[in-house]
Amino acid sequence: MIVRLRSTSSTMVDAAALATRGRPHGTVVVADEQTAGIGRHGHSWHSGPDGGLYFSIILRLRLAPADLPALTMALGLAVQKSVDDFADVSCDLRWPNDVLLNERKLAGIMVQSTETDALIAGIGINVNQAAFPDDLRRIATSLRIETGREHSKDALLDRAIAESLRAARMSKPEILRQFSDHSTYVTGKEVEVDGRIRGTTAGLDEDGFLLLATPTRVERIISGAVRPV
Prior knowledge:
seven-stranded mixed beta sheet; alpha+beta
């Protein structure tokens, strides 16, 4: 079931409310605009009424808390495949939740648990934006900017929902293998994390956390903003 809204504070908030009322696995809330889009670590997600695709999916899965990072990566794989197939582009994945196109952010994924047994997967994809605010211009992009044409958000939404529901059922080992295969950031990339630690990425551990080789040791990165240097 898809619940369509013209505007909302956050599709994740609305989806969580519906999950509390018992809406089933696979229910989707999609909006043309979010006034308070949610990003990781308390950041906002630019969600103006100018061409983005913003939706959240209710997932009722039997997952341990330790499996949530892998689920986020599975959804990243789903968005990557959906966009690549739909727009004939080649996206990259930046651990743990960014989908990039030409080294700029095209999409982001966030997973939150609820007070019930449901998980809420929030996904934002920049589709038809012609420009971004000054503070985002260097780091964000859209399919329209990259391809020079507008795209059907509904057609992309259908693909992304189907791929997300499929990917959410993948095993953790398969998710980690595929993410490693489809991301240039997992191995051999010179990066910094939160501007505080630099090193070369050295793969994923068994839980899906990023390994970073520094001059003195291998660090296990549990969270943080990873950027190339």
